[in-house]
Amino acid sequence: MLASSSRIRAAWTRALLLPLLLAGPVGCLSRQELFPFGPGQGDLELEDGDDLVSPALELSGALRFYDRSDIDSVYVTTNGIIATSEPPAKESHPGLFPPTFGAVAPFLADLDTTDGLGKVYYREDLSPSITQRAAECVHRGFPEISFQPSSAVVVTWESVAPYQGPSRDPDQKGKRNTFQAVLASSDSSSYAIFLYPEDGLQFHTTFSKKEKNQVPAVVAFSQGSVGFLWKSNGAYNIFANDRESIENLAKSSNSGQQGVWVFEIGSPATTNGVVPADVILGTEDGAEYDDEDEDYDLETTRLGLEDVGTTPFSYKALRRGGADTYSVPSVLSPRRAATERPLGPPTERTRSFQLAVETFHQQHPQVIDVDEVEETGVVFSYNTDSRQTCANNRHQCSVHAECRDYATGFCCSCVAGYTGNGRQCVAEGSPQRVNGKVKGRIFVGSSQIPIVFENTDLHSYVVMNHGRSYTAISTIPETVGYSLLPLAPVGGIIGWMFAVEQDGFKNGFSITGGEFTRQAEVTFVGHPGNLVIKQRFSGIDEHGHLTIDTELEGRVPQIPFGSSVHIEPYTELYHYSTSVITSSSTREYTVTEPERDGASPSRIYTYQWRQTITFQECIHDDSRPALPSTQQLSVDSVFVLYNQEERILRYALSNSIGPVREGSPDALQNPCYIGTHGCDTNAACRPGPRTQFTCECSIGFRGDGRTCYEVEKTRCQHEREHILGAAGAADPQRPIPPGLFVPECDAHGHYAPTQCHGSTGYCWCVDRDGREVEGTRTRPGMTPPCLSTVAPPIHQGPAVPTAVIPLPPGTHLLFAQTGKIERLPLEGNTMRKTEAKAFLHVPAKVIIGLAFDCVDKMVYWTDITEPSIGRASLHGGEPTTIIRQDLGSPEGIAVDHLGRNIFWTDSNLDRIEVAKLDGTQRRVLFETDLVNPRGIVTDSLTGNLYWTDWNRDNPKIETSYMDGTNRRILVQDDLGLPNGLTFDAFSSQLCWVDAGTNRAECLNPSQPPRRKVLEGLQYPFAVTSYGKNLYFTDWKMNSVVALDLAISKETDAFQPHKQTRLYGITTALSQCPQGHNYCSVNNGGCTHLCLATPGSRTCRCPDNTLGVDCIERK
After folding, report:
1. Contact in structure between 722 and 741 (CB atoms under 8 Å)
2. Exposed end of the chain (fewer CB within 10 Å): N or C?
3. Closest by alpha carbon to 508, among 302, 717, 657?
4. Range in 82-96, 449-463, 701-715, 811-825 with the lowest mean pLDDT
């Protein structure tokens, strides 16, 4: 192996010397031919010194690197590196390659600019002259590639000195190096250009602070560390790391121009490694070379962590194109084999100029589904070979256990006075300590920037006799500490391990001995995303303490600073089978915010919890009593606290394990637990009170639960599978490759209305066919308010009557929830939540906008599935559809109760229309300068119309007269996603809610200064007003929220029983506001449409006037 590596290295060295003999008319690169640099070019300057790192250079567009496409800033170091993340202090001076951070290294060495010994300049340049020059360099190296960059990062190390250390090598005195790196990026790819001018590299080694001697510089690229809880090195490529190769950087090339080296560093082709150019320098004479003497075997090895950077490897250069394919050695796993790239033919011509390339592929971490049983995750494994006996395996048992031989093997069991699984035993009743580390990568609320913490300590103390566990995690950043308070189950697993055992039942330690893996998923109801918890328990260490490693990754709802969280006692069922334990439950927690204005608002939230625990049990002892298939963990008290000063998160729980309690929803006699439910094999049994239960078909199946049949895959599912398959990531255990967009499908297989690119953070809306809706793409950190255009499937069962359920007298809030409209009575301004009831069921529709006609007591709505506009009377009867033709995506709707007209917005057709209340006499008012019109309201008394447009490039609120004249922008500054709009006729206040700025604001249209009513809203969608209150629907809370305008405070919230997204909301007034307009009497004297204006009216004709006798006049 070593001899072969030496032979190949020597061959590469000879190959590097050949271009010098073959050099034709192309001369060396002069310093004047470098990209322009210096203060006159707008360059920033790195501080003088040794081992320094620049502040982050924020990029205008993303840099692509290996398989990443989301790098938005870089760091420049003294030591010849451009880093894609901030280098840690301990790696400030060069060490073994690769580093833990992503690195582009045109000349990695210990360089020094102390006391003005050279300068380091850097900038991002968007000028056409620079980007065009970069494009020309790339085209020379990759003539078959069409590449036009939009930006370039230019970094120049000018006349930098070597760090010499105490030895002060006299040969290096006065020697200086000048070189340059340019990172050019387009929307789809990134390239690196290294430039080494003639006489630019006067030294090739520097003194190593680590090795205490002179070491050669390195030209290389590194992806940095990958993985989360257990990190490993990602892919990296070393192109030069010996004196001879470094000396030839200025004399040779891979791009046809001496001293210029080009590399493809970020594109679909670089997932497994950087791709160097392969244009031969100076072979115009067509010289051929014989390589019969050389042995160029490809050596491919997957490295363990300890091997990286120390084992000699020799690799052929990865190349684009070529008819030959890469023959993957058997040491690569099959799934890797499918993703390797083609190589060019192994000819001497293609090798003669090339630097030796050492390519080290990333070993991809696997993402394991929470329900999957992964046998490799256990800490130990019983050997089931019948030849294994206690005679040679006694050491596998605890010193407090006895070993017994059985027909097929041996088993360990704790002796009297000790508890455990025999492999691990502790004294009964003795206090226990658990120590470990916690790592987290958590998105809080709607933030697109994760909170990351590593090497955080976890300590737990357990009082076994009382089943009490006390867990402390420190130090947790304030930005996430309060939001982790509901996650008592992080410490709850320790409570389960040492829960007080009732007769015949076993706690977690008795079953597993504290050696198991646990994977859990927490879904917060009404909040996007979830949190995954991965824990590995490694048994008892040499100090007698249990050890645990914990990883938290995902998204949690934001809990305001200073809040307290209360969790009621709960029970949870643990289901047992061979080596696997599963459980799932739904729990509530109450968040009480800090006192404001004499009150402390409280809200109740819900999360769903499911987990899988895998362990190894001894299967040889048939006489051992079987565990009950179901045990109930009772948590009798829960205490959670975040200490902001100490940044410590504390969980305390009191636990016991025993039978399922009689009379509880988890009663043991429930058919779901005793197997008599009769649900289809592709259905889940959902227990109810006592013996009640329901059968629910699994995702991908439909039916009544008793019989389920597979649903054909949808277009979204087919597209998703095709993309993942092409990328070699069809295995659900593998993470989606960074930079790859894969569409999200909803639970029913349809395109999710909101699609996001996981790498860039951009989100946008799509229609039912997955096409992007123009003007909806939002920047990272903001999610557009997209609407689902596909109604959920109707479940089998008794038909729901579509007739209206008449409303009792009084004022009501009406709000839409997908396929139904609910009513919520108001008493004064108080929501009578216990009296909320369904008003109308239309299950095949997705109702978005609502409006109310106080004259005829009629509610109007828009439906985006058909699409259509419908109405129904509050007095009862069947709903009717009044418009179903020539609609795209009707969303907002408003009623002029005096002029007897309806107005609506259509975000697909980008227009605003008007019609009579029965849907006749339609007329388009506006069809220009609209992108995403949504909310719309009328001021019937004055004849004014108002609407919102949440166009991502230019959000605005506009107004006009009802006849479409006098159109103007009312609000344009400081808007994000203005969704809902309401006009209060009693106060003449126009108010709106904005899901981008998370604010509610108001103004009087005749007095433009606006007032911020309240900030910090979650995700408001629609809004209505009544009295002193605004009432808005919120997508994150799935609630109707009351906001008191007088005190600028949320005062109440109503959460419907069904937890799905809420849309439009309107106030069904018991009586109309007093007043009239010029259309109130006799239709204003108009033959057709009467459209009110301030102090007058306009008579208009509908758009289709063929055969109609219509007169227009003002």
Report:
1. no
2. N
3. 657
4. 701-715
Amino acid letter at 481? G
For 725-739, how does the pLDDT look when each residue is reduced to its tens digit (9 = 90+)?
A: 777 765 554 566 777
Q: Are residues 468 and 403 in the same domain?
A: no
1087: left (phi over 0), alpha (psi -120 to 50) or beta: alpha
Residues 403 and 496 in one domain: no
Residue 15 placed within a domain: no
Q: What is the pLDDT of residues 175-191, one digit of tens each?
A: 899 999 999 999 899 99
6's tokens: 């030496």
CATH number at 420 reads: 2.10.25.10
Residues 406 and 437 in one domain: no
For 123, list phi and psi in degrees, rounded to 5. Answer: -165, 165
In angstroms, the CA 877 to CA 863 distance is 19
When pLDDT is averaged across residues 774-778 and rounded to a whole number, the result is 84
**Helix %, strand %, coil % of the chain (to 5):** 10, 40, 50
Let me know: does 179 contact 196? Beta carbons within 8 Å.
yes
Q: What is the mean pLDDT of residues 850-872?
A: 94
DSSP character at residue 279: B
Number of domains in the chain: 4
pLDDT at 359 over 50: no
Calculate the alpha carbon distances from 412 to 576, 621, 662 in Å.
20, 10, 35
Does residue 980 surpass a pLDDT of 90? yes
Least Cα distance to 294 among 584, 642, 6 occurs for: 6
* Whether residue 134 is found in the same domain as residue 105: yes
Distance from C-alpha of 1035 to C-alpha of 236, rounded to nearest angstrom: 44
CATH number at residue 557: 2.40.155.10
- The verdict on pTM exceeding 0.90 is no
Comparing 364-368, 610-614, 657-661, which segment has the lowest mean pLDDT? 364-368
DSSP H helix total and E strand total for the chain: 11, 69
Please check whether residue 62 lies inside any domain of the structure: yes
Q: Count the Cβ atoms, other than its own, within 10 Å of residue 363.
A: 18
Same domain for 407 and 547, yes or no, is: no
Provide the residue type at 63 as one letter: L
Mean of the pLDDT values across residues 572-601? 84
Q: Can you name the residues that pair with 565 across neighbouring β-strands?
A: 591
The CATH number for 844's domain is: 2.120.10.30
Contact (CB, 8 A) for 631 and 505: yes
Give residue 762's pLDDT: 85
Residue whose C-alpha is closest to residue 95's, from 189, 244, 211: 211
Q: Give the pairing type, strands 500-501 and 648-658.
A: parallel
The answer to whether position 728 is within a domain reads no
Q: Are residues 419 and 452 in the same domain?
A: no
Q: How far apart are CA 592 and CA 769, in angstroms?
A: 43
What's the pLDDT at 865? 87
Write down which residue in 254, 276, 298 finishes a domain: 276
Name the pairing type of β-strands 401-406 and 218-222.
unpaired
Q: Give the end of a domain, one of 609, 641, 661.
A: 661
Range of the domain at 220: 31-276
| Closest alpha carbon to 570 in 498, 661, 494 | 661
Q: Is the pLDDT of residue 355 over 70?
A: no
Mean pLDDT (the chain, rounded): 80
Pinpoint the alpha helices (H) of 419-488: 478-481
- The two tokens of residue 187 are 């929307």
For residues 262 and 135, what is the distance between their CA atoms, to the nearest angstrom?
11
Mean pLDDT (whole number) for 547-567: 92
| Side-chain-facing half-sphere of 954: CA atoms under 13 Å | 6
Residues 832 and 1075: their CA atoms lie apart, in Å, by: 30
Q: Is 632 within a domain?
A: yes
Question: Could you give the percent of the chain with pLDDT greater than 90?
Answer: 39
**How much is the pLDDT for 991?**
96
Cα–Cα dist 656/471, whole Å: 17
What's the pLDDT band for 330 if we cut at 50, 70, 90? Answer: very low
